[in-house]
Design a protein that fits this description.
Elements lengths: L14 E3 L3 E2 L2 H11 L4 H4 L1 H5 L10 H14 L7 E11 L8 E14 L4 E12 L4 E12 L13
Amino acid sequence: MAKGLYFEDLELGQTLSTKGRTITEADVVNFAGLSGDYNPIHVDAAFASRTEYGQRISHGALGLSIATGMSYQAGFLEDTVMAFLSLEWKYSAPIYIGETIHCTLTISDLKLMRRLGGGKVGLDVKVIKQDGTVAQRGTWTLLVRSREAALPGDAEGV
């Protein structure tokens, strides 16, 4: 049984929010290893202390990656998202190690695509720091399953 929201459950202007998550030293170190991005602004405390930030900052792509994970873990996308189709993304403030972020996702576009078994959903996404600063923002386009195309065994699709 799907836990997330189906295409038909979504409304233009509807805003969904995630829980917060603190960016840790381990997140930054592991992301550097995974991505191969060892830019000293992320991994060298002495170097970073001489920059305009005064300390290391997390990778921008790490913030985006965590935002996608937090959005899925919030449950409204669980089992109903069929594909992540596209994104447009902007970075406006650094995320420091130890800061807590959360996301808001506002539905900005809905287009039924019966042939694909669901609909395209445009989401205006904001990654917000604990002080209220928007660190990252953009638009995600997802393909979300419709009720009529629910997977076999999904009680709501029967």
